[in-house]
Amino acid sequence: MSGPYLELRGLKKSFGLKPILRGVDLDIQRGERVALLGANGTGKTTLLRLLAGLLKPDGGTICLEGVDVRREQQHLRRQVGFVGHQPYLYTELSVLENLVFFGHLYGVKQSEAQAMKLLEQVGLGQRARERVGVLSRGQLQRVALVRALLHSPDLLLFDEPDTGLDDAGVALLEKTLQTQAAQNGVVLFTTHQLEHAFAFSDRMVVLHQGRIVFQYASAALNMESFRRAYQKVVQ
Amino acid sequence: MAVVNQPPGVVGRTAANQQPRPKGGLSPVALVLGGLSCVGILVSIWAIFLYAPREATQGEPQRIFYFHVPTAWLAMLAYGVLAVASIIYLIKGDERWDWIARATAELGAVFTTLALITGSLWGKPIWGTWWVWDARLTTTLILWFLYIGYLMLRNTLGRTPTSARAGAVLGIIGFVDVPIIYLSVNWWRTLHPQAVLPVGGEPQLPPSMLLTLMISLAAFTLLYAFLMTQLYQLERLQTLTLRLRALIEG
Amino acid sequence: MSELALFFEQVWAILWKDLRSEFRNRQMLIGMGMFALLVLIIFNFAFDLRVDNKAAVAPGALWVAFVFASLLGLGRTIAAEREQGSLDRLLLSPVSRKAIYLAKLLGNVLFIGIVELVAVPVFAILFDVPLATGLLIPIVLLGTLGIAAVGTLFSALTASSQTREMLLPILIFPLIVPIVIGAVRATGSLMIAVSNEPPWLGLIAAFDVIFLSISLLTFEYIVDE
Q1: What region does C128 belong to: left with phi over 0, alpha with psi -120 to 50, or beta?
Q2: Which site among B80, B229, C108, C143 is 20 to 30 Å from C51 CA-CA?
Q3: Is the pLDDT of residue B8 over 50?
Q4: Is the predicted pLDDT of residue B30 greater than 80, yes or no?
Q5: What pLDDT sits at residue B12?
Q6: CB within 8 A of A161, min separation 6: which ones?
């Protein structure tokens, strides 16, 4: 393996006058699933949005397979699938129309066929022609997932994907993460539920006051002692 | 919770790390400019009221001309500075150019207001009305709106890089538009010829009047430069203070 | 697929998506149309037109109606994006920011154009004014393009502010003065031929080219955080 897939050095971002990220250093290898933890407001969402190409860093570097993507944000965006708090769908259009539209923007060949295939996999094949506005929250999340996977991105970013999910949803999430890692892609997700972090990730990373203060292989961690230490930090 | 030991880095390129703090009061440049402009204004007041001859046809009110032209000139100059600062800011992203932009926008708004008022005051005894829609005055009025619009936009959007970029784009677009506006109003006016303010540029301006005008122009420009240094410092201090407060509260 | 072809495909995709969304929810279009008509009617009362006055006031009335209807429509797409969870949906993808601008611009021109299409014959009827409609088209087209070019950029600029509705006209009106002057004069000269009329259409066309270019170049600075 040549180098890390994703390499962050000294990443900084402020909102207005308030610094959120104060120098983040992180490496992620291909095939890794990384859980990003930390209290609210420490910059988890900001970090994800930076990696998704929605924000420009104020300082530091983001390298994707050795290529500095700060100047080439379009290159970054092409490789990224992002599932955030909002579904990022157009309510007036049908599920399929949404997906085909986004497929066009990403240059996906035969976007309709690809979209249908993914919709079947998440169990929404029947709903393809329905208006997004009528879907339930759980269904919206699954469509958002399809949208993120449509262009077969190398880097999957999930912002608290497990909030309000039922068991089937959680199972789908776990399977998605495993598949992505198995296909040599990368996953970075945030969560507040430590069980999910332990179960679905290869490495746990803790963000605190804009910097990474802890990271360790999930399998090698003792869940209980980690939980206790984590509660103290998050307080 | 453990206290973070190293001081959190101040994000973004700021002037705080790059300029030595002035020892309170004015920097040498500002002092020089301030002194010169003070002298200049006093000299021009003398020149305008005591040195310049009384104009034949217009009489005493004509002396407003020596205030009107410089303020109109500064209204234009300030916008030029705004445009240049805007372009440089967009290219470099250095917030100091945004401070310059904000400072010159405020000054420009003030001087444009003065230009409109002096123009109006001058016009009343000459045409009998407070306003005519001649090309110069109309364009100045629109310029006033451009300035106010800029200030309102910056005020609404706050002190963020987004706000700075928005302001920069507005500055550039306005700057390119002003000549077009002038042209279109001029064409429009030639269809309805009306009295025009006999502003300088007429070859028959006698040397004493020309000299007075030059003195006045120089004095006002120095004043502008001096005020720019002060307003720039104000912007800088406001930004740094707010940033510090955000750090502490955060 | 070549880069240019891809670019225009993106423009078309976004435009088509906007049009489809818009037509499923026709509020905006109807609102703009009603507004334009109401302005025309109010002008009739406001100016108490007698036959000889009409030609002088009519072009002005028409263009005031257009400008105000444009303002209503300009907030349309960008505001809709920002409200419903933001332009992020588009910005997340590797779509060219210039393509986003162009698509929004064309959408705006189309929408304002549809309203204008309705307003012009109504105008001709209400004011009993003969309009050589063929020659009116380039004037209306170029004028609308100019207003939309600046307006699309500025509605993105002001979209995140709470006072957007108030701020947008304050920023746009001064900038589109050349278009208003030119379009009104050009429309007027259609009704009553005037000699030695300056090349208004050329001025508006130049305005369009200049501000379209500047907007294309600067749009991404506005829209990317």
Answers
A1: left
A2: C143
A3: no
A4: yes
A5: 43
A6: A83, A141, A173, A189, A191
Q: Taking a contact as any Cβ pair under 8 Å apart, which residues of chain B between 132 and 151 contact chain C?
A: 142, 145-146, 148-149
Q: Which residues pair with A161 in a beta bridge?
A: none
pLDDT tens-digit map of B155-185? 988 888 889 999 999 999 999 999 999 999 9
CA distance C38 to A235: 60
How far does chain C reach from its first CA to its final CA, in angstroms? 29
Cβ within 8 Å, pair B169-C221: yes
Structure tokens at C42: 């109010």
Contact C93 A101 (CB under 8 A): no
Using a CB-CB cut-off of 8 Å, the residues of chain C touching B156 are 158, 161-163, 167
Residue with tokens 């973070």: B4
Q: Which residue has the tokens 């609404």?
A: B156
Spans of chain A, pLDDT less than 50: none
Chains with 3 or more CB pairs under 8 A to chain C: A, B
Spatial contact of C140 and C208, defined as CB atoms under 8 Å apart = no
C153 touches chain B (CB under 8 A): yes
C160 and B185 in contact by Cβ < 8 A?
no
In degrees and rounded to multiples of 5, residue A63 shows phi and psi of: -115, 130
DSSP 3-state assignment of B9? coil
Kindly state the percentage of chain C with pLDDT values over 70.
Answer: 87
Q: Are A21 and A46 in contact (CB under 8 A)?
A: yes
- Say if residues B109 and B148 touch (Cβ distance below 8 Å): yes
Closest-CA residue of A relative to B10 is A19
Within a 13 Å sphere around the CA of B71, how many CA atoms are in the beta-carbon half?
21
Helices of type H across C92-193:
97-126, 133-158, 164-175, 177-191
Residue B194's pLDDT band, with cuts at 50, 70 and 90, is: low
Angle between helices C200-223 and C133-158 (to 10 degrees): 20
DSSP state of B50: I
Q: Do C90 and A105 touch (CB under 8 A)?
A: yes
ipTM rounded to 2 decimals: 0.87
CA distance A112 to chain C (A): 14
Q: Which of B123-137, C18-32, C134-148 has the lowest mean pLDDT?
A: C18-32
**Are C225 and A56 inside 8 Å of each other by CB?**
yes
User: Phi/psi of residue B77, each to 5°?
Assistant: -60, -45
